[in-house]
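--- STAGE predict ---
source: upstream dedup step, 1 unique chain passed
mode: sequence only
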Amino acid sequence: MDLVPALQEPLKQPLKSVLGPATAKVMAEHLGLHTVGDLLHHYPRRYEERGQLTHLADLPMDEHVTVVAQVADARLHAFASARAPRGKGQRLEVTITDGSGRLQLVFFGNGVHKPHKELLPGTRAMFAGKVSVFNRRLQLAHPAYELLKGQDGEAVESWAGALIPMYPATAKLESWKIGKAVQTVLPSAQEALDPLPESLRAGRGLVALPEALLKIHRPHSKADIADAHARLKWDEAFVLQVALARRRHADTQLPAVARVPVPDGLLAAFDDRLPFTLTEGQRKVSREIFADLATEHPMHRLLQGEVGSGKTLVALRAMLAVVDAGGQAAMLAPTEVLAQQHHRSVTEMMGELAEGGMLGGAELGTKVVLLTGSMGAAARRKALLDLATGEAGVVIGTHALIEDKVQFHDLGLVVVDEQHRFGVEQRDALRGKGRQPPHLLVMTATPIPRTVAMTVFGDLETSVLDQLPAGRSPIASHVVPAADKPHFLARAWERVREEVAKGHQAYVVCPRIGDEEDDPKKAAARKSAEDEAEKRPPLAVLDIADRLGKGPLHGLKVEVLHGRMQPDDKDAVMRRFAAGETDVLVATTVIEVGVNVPNATVMVIMDADRFGVSQLHQLRGRVGRGAAPGLCLLVSEMPEASAARQRLNAVASTLDGFELSRIDLEQRREGDVLGQAQSGARSSLRVLAVIDDEEIIAEAREEAAALVAADPDLEHLPGLRTALDALLDEEREQYLEKG
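--- STAGE serialize ---
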């Protein structure tokens, strides 16, 4: 992160490598460590205490582990095999113990000689290998090992102190080999350039960076580790927040057209025709957005809110304000189903105001056009013309909006729905279509804890809609354990029939379509990972629809909806469902966001354990949108004690999306949160945890904002500039810039 020449030295060089060439190669290929600085920032995951043995009783199956233990006994056996038919094969069996359990190590053939001499009863050592089962007993076959007691005590000394660092390792490079490599480069830590301003470091009582690096790699006490963590967490939080603060500062320097709605214009006419009053939350968020739109630099705002909190209405009012001010507004949706749904609901809400320039249209109105990839040539030409001339004030579309042919008369606002579904380049391409940078409003129905929003979307101001509009009904959620209690599943289908009998409708959601022509690679990948663990492929829409139609839902009108259907067919299915002509819609997650059918009251999610927490929350939000209460049934065959069932129980126990997103985040890699997962890069967060370290992130943001306001180019902080360069490779910088 804070690389200077000594720390930028490559671990592997043509003439003189810092480490052995084989070790350097494995570090580069398997751990992404290329320089001395990279290695110094590869921190231990945990520490073993020399006097405290690892719990062998808790070893995970099929994982590469490192344990510290003592040899209880060692026996050499002879056996006959194809290679040694005369009984001259040799097998060494070593039993190790840590007081909590015992584990068998096995060595074969020529590999028995060295361990036979070294692993004598009473010897203590570190062992690393993959845990497997043989004859119903756990074992490590041919583990690598490092003795912890040399005759002259040197081996013990090499571990420097009482705590043994355990590094994130790979099967090709054990933790202690990484530790030895760190020992080799540790003197370079003295040359690490400190990214924190001296006043900040002193004011918070943080140790200097060289000292923190020494303490995290070679601690003499737990206090050393705490000192190092406290310091290194600040590095990560502060450098990231400075990067985001500089983005915000740069945005304030960009010119944009201020868009102020006229007092008696389109927005006022729209508000007058609304059949309900806005919630206080909607009014507050609208005020924040209008204040941003009135400034002469681009708005960058994240609008997050619970499923069904009325985000689309707030976004539409912002779009109409921009049209009032002479500009155009574009809404980018992730799927055609959602784009069509938005177009339908917007034109319905606006009525004659959406027919500007047309017969019967209101005098104040504007045109609202839809643009998707599957539109016919004539309709597409007409839509493109309306955009280029400015006739259409509002356009709703998919990524088709981004194509080169699409020209706007005066693009003033871009609304991106479900931000996480769009790549950086797509969002940026649409923003580039304005004569000056347009204002940007990003919407998400996946609530993000405040701390994560500050970390990930630090260059976006955040508005939160946490109030549900009047008339929304509560949703009851229950887990249906199909394997343990099959009669519960039978009861679920009875509940669907009962709801339909009352005049309501139902969704059944499945993880898969079911018409896949599996290519062998995909099939193999699925088999090895998921199917082997779960013994069958995920349930599919086409299979389940057929089974329900012939079985428990016989006599009801059942239709299917999935992403590989023709767009016109999808639209027709959605229209029939919205009109109440279909009783049960069996669908994939194409209905996850934006689909609004108030008469649908029950949702059955098959194989619910195959979905993420946030996705389940999104799906559940499709019911309970009218006056009747909603019901969501999460069907799973996973056993009660499994992590998957605990996740489902969490979803069933709360309707608070912010609480669920915390649970979701705690189960995921931090890197996913920062967007690095999409580029394959390692997370830039190694010691900072966005959920646990909320206070540090908030304080770092304040410090960063003050520092950047005083010195935007960081002229007086060369260490911080160097750290930023290391954190923000080109890909990450783009991610921050355009996100």
